[in-house]
Write a structure and sequence with these properties.
The protein has helices spanning about 15-20, 30-40, 70-80, 85-105, 115-120; strands spanning about 5, 10-15, 45-50, 55, 65, 65-70. By secondary structure, the chain is an alpha+beta fold.
Length: about 140
Amino acid sequence: MLPITQQNDQMWVDARSLHQALGIGRDFSTWINARIENVGATENEEYAVLDSSPILGNGYNPKPRIDYLLSIDLAKEVAMLEKNDTGKAIRRYFIEARKARPIIDKLDLERKPLKSHWEDVHRGTPYRTTTSIASG
């Protein structure tokens, strides 16, 4: 399931969730950095970097995990770059979510900061999902 969150009049998607749903074979950091570069996305407009993610690894040299939130428009573009049926299905999912947005706006749901949304997603409890798609 790909949770979609609305914050500051923008719809956001967790990039790791998108990576998993697309079934990408490459590691996440290589894939997302290449895709951001391919499309020329602008940080803090089309995507946000969340560098306060949990620490990875054990031992003497733990590394922070870097996560990203993508605008729904960027997520749609990234999905299409995969040029496969899953990417097309996820693009369609984002289009339908965009159509549902006026309905969600009318509900006047609570808005959370992006960091809080990320924490909710990674605890497995996205606070708002406009619609869902099964991954894989």
